């Protein structure tokens, strides 16, 4: 395990970057979840509290999931194809690789060229694409941001606590997993007067009849597939099924195949455009990040993703091939 002094030095380097910058752009990953938006908004509101000018962004041309607007400051996070204006520092949060910054990839790479890119992330697959890279796979991105805010003298308030809690909730599967320190942080954040039931309702529970019917349709077609020596529980969410439905409902599908009886791997194929699939992998029995990395994606040991092209059957065949030749042992 990393020595405490080494860890402290890595956090101090990142904190120093934040402390000396006057103008900052904060970039979250495309198709953001509450972890990405909570990280962007917590850092934005925190830096503004100590007088910095901050531009919060996500790299996609279209608005993100509406339920995320319940997070304080989320209405200010602009979907963008470029980083507007001049900044002393660009911070990429919760992005395991530069392509996760989506339509901002070019601008983020340019920031790296100019040696003003700070990466704050927790994915095991992180490629270290920043000038300074703070990668901590033991933490959630929001708990890392909480630590950095402490180090640069930003006191928490109710809004920042809400942002951090939203990210923490997503990253712990609504507090079903995560480290003891993440759960302790949740308790501390709640002391700022948060309403956890309301936050859970806004971010996780709230749905519509149409979305529920879509989820039901996909679940009714759950398949068990032998893939590269694994018993995969597979959900296929094609364009015709998910078009017009909320991103949060589509993303919720992965929760149903995390631990299906008789399976040791969960796979969700989500068709983003004709023949273009975002694939989610879930498992508590093998390291799916290794599989996603080999397919050009990334993520965590238990939850990872990548994109694939072709038909659903072709995507499954490609996955089976990679599964049979990857060391996924825990
Ligand atoms: P999800 O399956 O919920 O989209 O993502 C699971 C995890 O894998 C998340 O931590 C996410 O950041 C990561 N992930 C998903 N898709 C990709 C991808 O295409 N590239 C990379 N680098 N990471 C991904
Ligand atoms: Mn995220």
Could you give a quick summary of the protein structure above?
With 330 residues, the chain is of the alpha/beta class.
List the helices and strands and how they pair.
Blueprint (H helix, E strand, L loop, with lengths): L3 H17 L2 E6 L5 H16 L3 E6 L19 E2 L9 E5 L11 H9 L3 E5 L10 E4 L5 H11 L6 H14 L8 H11 L5 H10 L3 H12 L2 E5 L2 E8 L1 H4 L4 H6 L12 E9 L2 E7 L5 H7 L3 E2 L3 E7 L2 H12 L7
The structure holds guanosine-5'-monophosphate and manganese (II) ion (MN).
Please provide a written account of the structure.
The protein has 330 residues and is of the alpha/beta class. It folds into two domains: 4-203, inorganic pyrophosphatase (n-terminal core), CATH 3.90.1640.10; 209-325, Diaminopimelate Epimerase, Chain A, domain 1, CATH 3.10.310.30. It is 39% helix and 20% strand. It has helices at residues 4-20, 34-49, 105-113, 141-151, 158-171, 180-190, 196-205, 209-220, 239-242, 247-252, 288-294, 312-323; strands spanning 23-28, 53-58, 78-79, 89-93, 117-121, 132-135, 223-227, 230-237, 265-273, 276-282, 298-299, 303-309. The strands form two sheets. A six-stranded parallel beta sheet has the order 3-2-1-4-5-6, sandwiched between helices. Strands 7-8-9-10-12-11 form a six-stranded mixed beta sheet. A hairpin with a 2-residue loop joins strand 7 (223-227) and strand 8 (230-237). Helix 1 (4-20) crosses helix 4, helix 2 packs antiparallel against helix 5 and helix 4 (141-151) runs antiparallel to helix 5 (158-171). The protein is globular and about 55 Å long. The two termini are 17 Å apart. The mean pLDDT is 97. The protein binds guanosine-5'-monophosphate (5GP) and manganese (II) ion (MN). Manganese (II) ion binds at residues 29, 33, 35-36, 94.
């Amino acid at each position: 395990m990393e020595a405490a002094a080494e860890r402290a030095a890595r956090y101090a380097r990142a904190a120093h970057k934040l402390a000396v910058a006057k103008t900052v752009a904060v970039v979250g990953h495309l198709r953001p979840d509450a972890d990405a938006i909570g990280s962007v908004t917590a850092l934005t509101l925190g830096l503004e509290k100590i007088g910095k000018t901050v531009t919060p962004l996500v790299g996609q041309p279209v608005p993100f999931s509406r339920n995320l607007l319940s997070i304080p400051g989320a209405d200010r996070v602009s979907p963008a194809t470029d980083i507007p204006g001049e900044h002393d520092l660009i911070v990429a949060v919760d992005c395991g690789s530069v392509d996760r910054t989506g339509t901002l990839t070019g601008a983020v790479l340019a920031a790296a060229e100019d040696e003003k890119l700070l990466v704050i992330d927790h994915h095991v697959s992180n490629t270290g694409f920043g000038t300074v890279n703070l990668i901590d796979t033991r933490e959630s991105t929001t708990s890392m941001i909480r630590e950095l805010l402490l180090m640069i003298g930003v006191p928490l308030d109710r809004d920042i606590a809400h942002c951090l809690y939203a990210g923490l909730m997503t990253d712990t599967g609504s507090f079903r997993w995560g480290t003891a320190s993440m759960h302790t942080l949740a308790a501390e954040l709640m002391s700022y007067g948060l309403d956890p039931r309301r936050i859970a309702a806004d971010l996780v529970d709230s749905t519509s009849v149409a979305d529920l019917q879509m989820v039901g349709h996909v679940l009714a077609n759950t398949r068990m597939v032998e893939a590269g020596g694994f018993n995969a529980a597979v959900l296929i969410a094609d364009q015709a099924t998910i078009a017009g439905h909320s991103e949060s409902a589509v993303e919720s599908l992965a929760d149903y195949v995390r631990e299906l009886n008789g399976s040791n791997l969960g796979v969700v194929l989500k068709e983003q455009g004709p023949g273009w699939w975002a694939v989610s992998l879930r498992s508590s029995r093998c390291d799916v990040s290794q599989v996603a990395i080999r397919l050009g994606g990334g993520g965590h040991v238990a939850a990872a993703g990548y994109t694939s092209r072709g038909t659903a059957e072709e995507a499954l065949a490609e996955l089976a091939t990679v599964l049979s030749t990857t060391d996924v042992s825990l």
